[in-house]
Design the sequence.
């Protein structure tokens, strides 16, 4: 039997954000598969959709599915921290629909307009052409407004309740640079070296600092809910992680400055501090194992996705990042499929797994289930992870071939690039990536259908809560 | 038990952030000076009027760009303002056509097509594209290719026709020539620059 709880309005909005996020996750996979297919058959959809547009859709939607999931996570989790609904929910709802309209309009622009003449007008209306922030400036303004309203929802609530926990302090202080750094999505500096210097502030400090702190905070809140871990334990670990992330990650930005015209001291500083960046991620693993050993779980999928977030973050961001972060290796590995291998595993381990855990937690709590389990989530879990780690391994093989044949012995010219792309190791690597990509897509299909099925059961239960037993969702 | 006092660890987080950000700000001030146009590692835009090379410098154990004698681009010597306007247009074209979602510069971008950091120096222009486009200089071959890449396919991955005007293509070529002059700490490693590049009196950029 289930008893469907009433939700805070911010939690209702969170469920909409999770729906959007899961849909965007699917869109990202579709365009990833299209891009992967183009490596094998370059003529595939070449006329209507050049590789660049498939790639833009893949990586920009990657940012969006995670960002919307982060927003959903905080809208879901924070009312319990504040013991009340968040303020400014009318504006937050408007922002949600603005995001939906903007995402659809920008996708249509990328798919059907694609590019324009080399003028500022093109950057405002069509494409900014800067990796991860290709959205035209008008859309970037909408995103900035949306983030500003989101910051207001949280900070305004904290001011209203006059009671802030350690976790919410971390979240609030982290949202300020997260918003401020997004202002670097707009410039179009002529000097590529200066342009990339500041662009890396946006990308690195989002992905390797503010997002890391955000997911650490979200996981802290999840651990208290899923395993009843004590607040002192999660806050202590959160502070340790934040200290280590910032101690290593701030100057760890130097590993992006090796080859773009910056002074040589970045080779030493960037190499040293980014080599230490796995430390906080290792701390997160210890944290997860420590807490897992003490408490009983009520949500199997959320628990396993949380554990995998800790291990996956350490492996994908930590170990894979460490592999290529020292300048002596990075000189050959940078800008090859080796980097892509790291990128896939890092985003998945650090963020993808974490937000899936929160979504499972939300559907459990929204449905009022005492426990959540079943078999479908295990299939999704298995296929998604076999698919992702298979893709990571395949791209690693392709990237190593590139680093060796194109860079180390080929001389890095156009002909060296082409020769490396045609080596058996590279070709087999990108074929394997495609096959594992299909497995990943199959895992996604099961994940999405599982989440939809659980949500539908809870809606049915809401209609007749006193009489309906929910099969598979409350007994395992 | 260490978890009894989260405040201690919070103080650690705040102090590490403060120290690291202070160091980053100091390094940023210095770095911006070095990478600004005309800084120690990044030549002024008027470098497009000169011969540029890329050589293995034994004293540094790495490849470094060289700036040689006069080598006007498209037979024209650009003054400071003209060069800046041309390079600015080149950057706008690169962004408006999303070039870095197939290519990369300084290794950053996408990996579907070759890195462009030293593309200006690539011997392939002289070896393959000059005969193919029936032009006599590397710059003209690059312009012809950029305007109609679909007309000059080289391997299975064909560059799409992004409908660059002649002026836009020339601006991109100027941008790539300037980019090739930046000291990138030896990246890309071992790049075999066109041996026919007019070197003139070379001065290694350090």
Sequence:
């Amino acid at each position: 039997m289930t008893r469907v709880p009433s939700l805070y309005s911010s939690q209702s909005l969170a469920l909409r954000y999770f729906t959007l996020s899961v849909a965007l996750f699917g869109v990202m996979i579709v365009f990833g598969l299209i891009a992967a297919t183009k490596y094998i058959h370059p003529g595939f959809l070449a006329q209507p959709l050049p590789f660049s547009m498939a790639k833009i859709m893949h990586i920009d939607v990657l940012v969006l599915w995670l960002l919307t999931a982060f927003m959903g996570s905080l809208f879901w989790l924070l009312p319990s921290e504040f013991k009340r609904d968040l303020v400014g929910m009318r504006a937050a709802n408007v922002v949600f629909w603005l995001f939906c309209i903007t995402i659809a309009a920008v996708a249509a622009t990328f798919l059907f307009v694609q590019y324009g003449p080399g003028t500022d007008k093109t950057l405002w209306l069509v494409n900014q052409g800067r990796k991860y922030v290709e959205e035209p400036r008008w859309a970037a303004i909408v995103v900035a407004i949306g983030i500003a309203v989101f910051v207001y929802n949280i900070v305004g609530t904290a001011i209203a309740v006059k009671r802030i926990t350690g976790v919410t302090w971390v979240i609030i202080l982290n949202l300020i640079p997260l918003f401020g750094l997004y202002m670097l999505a707009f410039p179009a500096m002529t000097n590529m070296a200066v342009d990339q210097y500041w662009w890396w502030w946006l990308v690195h400090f989002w992905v390797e600092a503010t997002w890391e702190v955000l997911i650490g905070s979200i996981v802290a809140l999840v651990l208290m809910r899923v395993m009843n871990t004590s607040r002192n334990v999660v806050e202590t670990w959160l502070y340790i992680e934040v200290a280590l992330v910032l101690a290593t990650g701030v100057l760890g930005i130097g590993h992006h400055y090796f080859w773009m015209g910056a002074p040589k001291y970045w080779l030493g500083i960037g190499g040293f501090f980014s080599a230490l960046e796995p430390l906080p991620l290792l701390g997160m693993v210890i944290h997860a194992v420590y807490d897992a050993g003490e408490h009983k779980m009520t949500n199997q999928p959320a628990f396993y996705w949380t554990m995998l977030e800790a291990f996956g973050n350490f492996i994908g961001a930590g170990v894979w990042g460490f592999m290529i972060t020292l300048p002596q290796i990075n000189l050959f590995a940078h800008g090859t499929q080796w980097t892509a291998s790291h990128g896939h595993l890092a985003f998945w381990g650090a963020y993808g797994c974490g937000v899936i855990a929160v979504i499972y937690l939300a559907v459990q709590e929204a449905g009022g289930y005492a426990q959540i389990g079943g078999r479908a989530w295990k299939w999704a879990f298995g296929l998604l992870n076999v698919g992702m780690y298979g893709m990571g391994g395949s791209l690693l093989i392709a990237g190593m071939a590139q680093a060796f044949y194109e860079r180390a012995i080929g001389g890095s010219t156009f002909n060296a690039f082409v020769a490396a792309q045609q080596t058996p190791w590279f070709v087999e690597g990108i074929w394997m990536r495609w096959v594992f990509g299909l497995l990943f897509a199959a895992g996604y299909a099961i994940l999405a259908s599982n989440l939809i099925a659980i949500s539908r059961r809870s809606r049915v239960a809401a209609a007749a809560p006193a009489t309906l037993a929910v099969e598979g969702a409350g007994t395992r | 038990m260490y978890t009894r006092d989260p405040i201690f660890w919070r103080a650690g987080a705040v102090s590490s952030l403060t120290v690291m950000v202070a160091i980053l700000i100091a390094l940023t001030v210095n770095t911006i000076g070095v990478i600004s146009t005309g800084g120690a590692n990044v030549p002024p835009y008027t470098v497009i009027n000169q011969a540029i090379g890329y050589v293995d410098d034994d004293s540094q154990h790495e490849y470094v760009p060289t700036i040689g004698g006069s080598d006007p681009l498209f037979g024209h010597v650009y003054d400071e303002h003209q060069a800046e306007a041309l390079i600015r247009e080149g950057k706008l074209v690169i962004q408006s056509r999303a070039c870095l979602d197939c290519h990369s510069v300084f290794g950053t971008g996408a990996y579907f097509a070759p890195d462009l950091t030293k593309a200006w120096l690539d011997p392939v222009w002289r070896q393959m594209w000059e005969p193919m486009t029936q032009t006599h200089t590397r710059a003209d071959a690059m312009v012809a290719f950029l305007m109609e890449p679909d007309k000059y396919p080289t391997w299975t991955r064909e560059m799409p026709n992004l409908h660059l005007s002649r002026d836009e293509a020339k601006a991109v070529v100027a941008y790539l020539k300037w980019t090739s002059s930046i000291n990138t700490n030896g990246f890309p490693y071992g790049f075999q620059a066109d041996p026919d590049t007019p070197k003139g009196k070379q001065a290694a950029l350090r």
Summary: The beta strands of chain B are 50-57, 62-70, 104-105, 108-109, 203-204. Confidence is low (pLDDT under 50) at residues 200-206 of chain B. Chain B touches chain A through 84 residues (CB under 8 Å).
